[in-house]
């Protein structure tokens, strides 16, 4: 058997043994959300009060909701 076939068989076996991965909720870091909001504001060429208002709304929309 070729090496790649052995490798594929090994991966398939490990996948069957490990089982499916469970999805876990991951909160988006605030730093990443902040960066995205600022890039979008730059792309829209916003300045002054309009930029501040846009960033507030963008941060609020990206902030994860806590129960």
Explain what this protein looks like in three dimensions.
Helix 2 packs antiparallel against helix 3. This protein has a domain at 27-67. The chain starts with a helix and ends in a 5-residue tail after the last helix. It has 67 residues and is an all-alpha fold. It is built from three helices and no strands. Helix content is 67%, strand content 0%.
Number of helices: 3
- SS class: mainly alpha
Shape, please? elongated
Helix content: 55-70%
Radius of gyration: 22 Å
Report the uncertain regions.
Answer: none
Distance between the termini: 54 Å
Largest sheet: none
* Strand and helix order: HHH
Compute the number of strand runs. Answer: 0
Give the key terms.
67 residues, mainly alpha, 0% strand
Question: How are the elements arranged and paired?
Answer:
Layout: H1 3-18, H2 30-43, H3 48-62
Helix pairs in contact: 2-3
Outline of the structure:
The chain is an all-alpha fold and 67 residues long. It contains three helices and no strands. The chain is elongated, with a radius of gyration of 22 Å.
């Amino acid at each position: 058997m070729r090496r790649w076939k052995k490798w594929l068989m090994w991966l398939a076996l490990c996948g069957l043994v490990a089982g499916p991965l469970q999805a876990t909720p991951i909160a988006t870091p605030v730093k990443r959300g902040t960066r995205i909001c600022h890039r979008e504001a730059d792309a829209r060429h916003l300045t002054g009060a309009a930029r501040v208002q846009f960033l507030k709304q963008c941060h609020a929309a990206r902030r994860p909701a806590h129960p």
